[in-house]
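To illustrate this point, we now present one chain and its tokenised fold:
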Amino acid sequence: MSRNVNLTGFGVVRQPKTILFGPGERRSIAGVVAAIGSRALIVTDRRMEQSAEFAEILESLAERGADVSVYADVEAELPRTNVEDLLAEQDGRTFDVVVGVGGGSCLDMAKVAAVMLAHGGSVSDYYGEFKVPGPTVPIVTVPTTGGTGAESTCISVVYDPDLEMKVGIASPYLEATAAVVDPVFTLTCPPSLTAATGADAFSHLVEAFTARSKNPEPGTQDRYVYVGKNVLTDEHCRVGIRLLGTSLERVMAAPGDLEARSDTMRAALHAGLAINTTGTAAAHALQSPIGALTHTSHGFGVGALLPYVMRFNLPERVPEFAEIGRLLGVADATAGDLDQAHAGIERIDEILLAIGVPGTLAELGLDADAIPKVAAQAMRATRLTANNPRELTTESMRLILDKAYKGDRSWWS
């Protein structure tokens, strides 16, 4: 039997110590922070800093006597240099807790800052898995978008300009002490951000549900963060796929629909809990160099790639894609698995196009001449390529890119 099947019923999930979810839970932030300590560093971006919700957070912390320092210059895609700027600004200060408020880059910044404040050195010292030597400054994550799942993951992704690629810092020590997930924050998300983060969440769920089954030996999870598709992450994926299948288009059509916003944000949370141990795969490996070349958002990049990555991986994951078809309510349960799988993939295609995700890499702005370079750079992201259910080579990466550039959504092998 293939090693790409879960042979033992293995399961593992890593997650924050506490997760608070629901409309209005942002009012719990001050109490959560106060329970940890009184000196807080909050990292966010300019858009969030200017919001009424952020002012409410600061006011409630002040009422509890907290000493708060705010860094509001977090940049999209989190360049390594952005982290270094924060550390220089806060040099000499000590904190009891680091709070990330915002999208994925803000939450990743909180996690990296917590590592650096505790252990010092250079950001690059911690690239990879299990490089963080011990506990960090406690972390509280407060997502304001419904997509990245970064509130629940023990990985932080930074863009290293010297390497010209995104690099992960992955360690259980990066897991948040608490995640406060309030869908009300997402009501003010611009439509393009809602679409991009929703596409990101869908890519997480699909890549986690179809990821490689690594069948780790007992204790492997103490040495590696990404231990493969397993029975517990599959449950998170099933819930998240069902939720996004009915909520994402509703959110785009009616941005004020709090129920749809809640479903989308909960799907993203489940997706984060899944990829926390499965990891992501080909779509994410390819997006990094594409994003650097086109200066397009991460969510639109993985969303544009997903239809083509699904078709490439289909031969290794027909039963999983068939189940996705049933979860999305479009597959005929009496039909064969391959027909059900096609229905599931086509429904995801339909949702992504409906919310405005570019349908091809040409629409994303990629030059066809860049395909060989992108394929070669993507293969360097070994933490991601190792999770793909079908073996990846430079040639197969070029195949996916060529199909995605031309918009070929036929059933190719």
Observations:
- The chain has a mean pLDDT of 95.
- The chain has two domains: 25-181, 189-406.
- Strands lie at 18-21, 39-43, 67-71, 97-102, 128-129, 139-143, 155-160, 165-170, 178-181.
- The first strand starts at residue 18 and ends at 21.
